Amino acid sequence: MTNPVPLRVLALCLGNICRSPVAEALLRRELAAAGVDAVIDSAGTGDWHVGRPADPRSVDVARRHGLRLGGKARQLIRRDFADYDVILAMDSQNAAEARALAGSPGAAARVRLMRDFDPLAPGADVPDPYMGGKEGFESMFKMLERSAREFARQAAQPQNTAQADPI
Q: pLDDT of 61-80, one tens digit each?
């Protein structure tokens, strides 16, 4: 289903090098497969990785699953709340920080947890794999894949064609 205006989605994590770049790639794939015209990007709540590529372990897990990560880390800014219909935070701390930056209750309402769409654990956090090993990145990928697929399924539903309430 193609809307006249693309759905604009921002994936958000802490540093924009592990979870959100993978979520961005998965959302792009799943929304395209569902026939939803979308603009996808990612950002982090922190600034310490700005300008850097995705963590090599995220790049590796994405590659093993047929995805390519591009782009450079950037920090969430207030303007993102005007530029995106929905901001999918990887965990409750990222969501709280985003809502604090939002500037208004309406903008803050655009923030959702990525796993609000995970049929196996709705509303749970996507644990940050940064300090762990390869298995944490694989687990992260599976959570994000389930969540992105369900997000895309819901976004493709006829009742979600209005950009005022995208999901």
A: 999 999 999 899 999 999 99
Report residue 114 CA to chain centroid gap: 6
Residue 55: phi, psi to the nearest 5? -55, 135
The half-sphere exposure of 22 on its side-chain side, counting CA atoms within 13 A, is: 34
Is pLDDT at 2 greater than 50 in this prediction? no
Strands in 45-166 per DSSP E: 86-89, 111-113
H or E, element range at 143: helix 134-155
- How many CA atoms lie within 13 Å of 21's alpha carbon, on the beta-carbon side? 31
Q: Give the global pTM.
A: 0.93
SS3 assignment, position 131: coil
Q: Give the residues across from 86 on adjacent strands.
A: 9
Sequence-separated (6 or more) residues with CB below 8 Å from residue 46: 14, 15, 75
> What are the catalytic residues?
13, 19, 128
Question: What pLDDT shows up at residue 14?
Answer: 97
